[in-house]
């Protein structure tokens, strides 16, 4: 039993750390970035809006795996600039996840903004609030409330998508599970990996449910 | 004393001319009821006064300060100063759903740094008491009835001590049995000499509370008279037709 723990479960939990680390980096950076993208899309300066639209279309319209491969292996092969674009695999993966998820979050937030009644802006205006005050005090809190279920959904997908690190050879949870399966000739590590993913997504689900309850405004 | 002066106001939405050279003025402490069929331009006129609609031509001044002069708006801080003298109550209340009743009242004065926190809090308390909703201070708007929401909205508008209150169909979104409580609050305000313009379908309110009734149709002011004259002795055919349809 102790041997089992040392040889299989412990490395997998270490791998899970990588998963969790990537998750936090991706979430913490891509949510604000996604919000900036939303603002860019809604900007009255058309070139900026088009640029943001194009970015979202490309990032949402192509597989994340393709984007990861391109960043990890494709960029260094570019002529001239390629040698400056060699990143640590994990860093490269973080960049890929952040760029991809920002596009999704941008669309989620845009949906949240659409759900806010025009009367809210009018009420803020007649009460003399500045644009900045209206955005930060009236619009954003409501937007995040509306977006919360979709953000929760996207976060759970993110946890599972971290398994894509396997394809760019960053040692994470799935990598150690696969190694153990090959070495011990048993499929038990697959199930263990499944349980660990499940625990992580369950924790997330509980956290988001709490947040939703807290921001119910009733 | 003239408080609001509107001259030759023109406004179109695309090719649809909603306000055709409207001129209108009202005095301090007056209560004007604006009535007319839907699409007559009365809400647009009201919204133009507080800069929720951009007008295409004409002038608007409040007190002796212009909001727009001959179709040209004054500078942004001038606009803010003029519109800041008015409060507005909307048909759909437009309370902030993520804030409690008390926070709805206190947010704007706090952000605008108008008074000390203590003064703002006391003011909010007084106004909630005035509209009869003291016990709802910590509730969120979603738990209030329509009539309660509208009373909160009136209190919120009063927090900034406006010289003029604009009401855009304040009871139109309410169940009939809830209009009374809102009209009561408005009547109290009228008795305290608040200057008010009320766009409404409530003929009873127009007759009992207003000092003057303005009838609009097709983007024009057709008739403007005291309630007694207006209801008992309408001058124009369009007014007569409207009253015939709406007074049963």
UniProtKB/TrEMBL annotation, chain A:
Q: Which organism is it from?
A: Ureibacillus aquaedulcis
Domain ABC transmembrane type-1 spans what residues? 16-208
The UniProt entry, under InterPro entries, shows: AA_ABC_transptr_permease_3TM, ArtM/GltK/GlnP/TcyL/YhdX-like, MetI-like, MetI-like_sf
| Topological type in the membrane | Multi-pass membrane protein
Listed PROSITE patterns? ABC_TM1
**According to the lineage, what is the superkingdom?**
Bacteria
Keyword terms: Amino-acid transport, Cell membrane, Membrane, Transmembrane, Transmembrane helix, Transport
* Gene3D superfamilies associated with the record: MetI-like
Q: What is its main location?
A: membrane
Q: Which compartment or compartments is the protein found in?
A: Cell membrane
Where does the chain cross the membrane? 20-41, 62-81, 87-106, 187-208
Q: Which family does it belong to?
A: Belongs to the binding-protein-dependent transport system permease family.
Q: What is this protein's name?
A: Amino acid ABC transporter permease
From TrEMBL, chain B:
InterPro entries referenced in this protein's UniProt entry, alphabetically:
AAA+_ATPase, ABC_ATPase_HisP-typ, ABC_transporter-like_ATP-bd, ABC_transporter-like_CS, MetN_ABC_transporter-like, P-loop_NTPase
Q: Which domain of life is it from?
A: Bacteria
- Look up and give the membrane topology term: Peripheral membrane protein
> Which SUPFAM superfamilies does the UniProt entry name for this protein?
P-loop containing nucleoside triphosphate hydrolases (SSF52540)
The record's subcellular location field reads:
Cell membrane
User: What keywords would UniProt list here?
Assistant: Amino-acid transport, ATP-binding, Cell membrane, Membrane, Nucleotide-binding, Transport
Q: Which SMART domains match?
A: AAA
Positions of transmembrane segments:
none
PROSITE patterns on file = ABC_TRANSPORTER_1, ABC_TRANSPORTER_2
Q: What is its main location?
A: membrane
What would you give as a GO molecular function for this chain, any one? ATP binding
Which family does the record claim for this protein? Answer: Belongs to the ABC transporter superfamily.
Name of the protein in its database record: Amino acid ABC transporter ATP-binding protein
User: Source organism lineage?
Assistant: Bacteria, Bacillati, Bacillota, Bacilli, Bacillales
């Amino acid at each position: 039993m102790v041997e089992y723990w040392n040889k299989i479960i412990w490395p997998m939990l270490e791998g899970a750390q990588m998963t969790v680390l990537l998750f936090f980096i991706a979430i913490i950076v891509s949510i604000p970035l996604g919000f900036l993208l939303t603002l860019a899309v809604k900007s009255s300066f058309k070139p900026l809006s088009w640029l943001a639209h194009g970015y979202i279309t490309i990032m949402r319209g192509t597989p994340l795996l393709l984007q990861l491969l391109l960043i990890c292996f494709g960029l260094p092969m570019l002529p001239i600039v390629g040698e400056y674009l060699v990143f640590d695999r994990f860093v490269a993966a973080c960049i890929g996840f952040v760029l991809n998820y920002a596009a999704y979050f941008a669309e989620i937030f845009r949906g949240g903004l659409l759900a806010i009644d025009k009367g809210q802006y009018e009420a803020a205006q007649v009460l003399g609030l500045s644009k900045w005050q209206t955005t930060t005090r009236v619009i954003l809190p409501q937007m995040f409330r509306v977006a919360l279920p979709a953000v929760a959904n996207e976060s759970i997908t993110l946890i599972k998508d971290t398994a894509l690190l396997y394809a760019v050879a960053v040692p994470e949870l799935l990598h150690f599970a696969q190694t153990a399966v090959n070495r011990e000739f048993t499929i038990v590590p697959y199930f263990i990996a499944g349980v660990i993913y499940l625990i992580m997504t369950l924790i997330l689900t509980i956290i988001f449910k709490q947040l939703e309850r807290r921001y119910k405004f009733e | 004393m003239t408080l609001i002066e509107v001259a030759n106001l023109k406004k179109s939405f695309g090719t649809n001319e909603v306000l055709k050279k409207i001129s209108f003025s009202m005095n301090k402490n007056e209560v004007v009821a604006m009535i007319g069929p839907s699409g007559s331009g009365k809400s647009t006129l009201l919204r133009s006064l507080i800069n929720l609609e951009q007008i295409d031509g004409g002038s608007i001044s409040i007190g002796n300060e212009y909001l727009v002069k001959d179709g040209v708006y004054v500078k942004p801080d001038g606009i803010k100063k003029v519109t800041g003298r008015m409060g507005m109550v909307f048909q759909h209340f437009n309370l902030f759903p993520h804030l409690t009743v008390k926070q709805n009242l206190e947010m704007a004065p706090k952000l605008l740094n108008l008074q000390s926190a203590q003064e703002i809090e006391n003011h909010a308390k007084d106004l909630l008491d005035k509209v009869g909703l003291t016990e709802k201070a910590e509730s969120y708007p979603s738990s209030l009835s329509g009539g309660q929401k509208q009373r909160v909205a009136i209190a919120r508008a009063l927090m900034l001590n406006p010289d003029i209150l604009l009401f855009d169909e304040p009871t139109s979104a309410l169940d009939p049995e809830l209009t009374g409580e809102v009209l009561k609050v408005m009547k109290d305000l009228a008795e305290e000499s608040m200057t008010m313009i009320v766009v409404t379908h409530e003929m009873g309110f127009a007759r009992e509370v207003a000092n003057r009734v303005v009838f609009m149709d097709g983007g024009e002011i057709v008739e403007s008279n005291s309630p007694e004259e207006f209801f008992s002795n309408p001058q124009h055919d369009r007014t007569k037709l409207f009253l015939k349809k709406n007074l049963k």
